[in-house]
UniProtKB/TrEMBL annotation:
This is DUF1993 family protein. PANTHER family: BLL2446 PROTEIN, DUF1993 DOMAIN-CONTAINING PROTEIN. SUPFAM superfamilies: DinB/YfiT-like putative metalloenzymes. Signal peptide: none annotated.
């Protein structure tokens, strides 16, 4: 059985993105239930030296996008 880098990385990235999506949906539901503007959660930090949640989501998606593009041998899309 052959094993390649795609099989080792893309399914893991997709699972991580699915999990992140579920977490964000739960946060949205929690914000609505507690009458909190969703932007409050998006700008929240768990610690003072962390990026806000919005920036962390951007980093996760850029990492997945960049990894997939590099494995495909294409230029990493910008501004998507």
């Amino acid at each position: 059985m052959s094993f390649n880098v795609y099989q080792a990385s893309i399914p893991v990235l997709l699972r991580g993105l699915d999990n992140l999506s579920a977490i964000l949906r739960k946060a949205e539901q929690d914000a609505a239930a507690r009458n909190i503007a969703p932007e409050v959660f998006l700008q929240a930090r768990l610690a003072p030296d962390m990026f806000p949640l919005l920036r962390q989501v951007q980093i996760v998606s850029d990492t997945a996008k960049g990894c997939a593009a590099r494995l495909a041998g294409i230029e990493v899309p910008r501004g998507c």
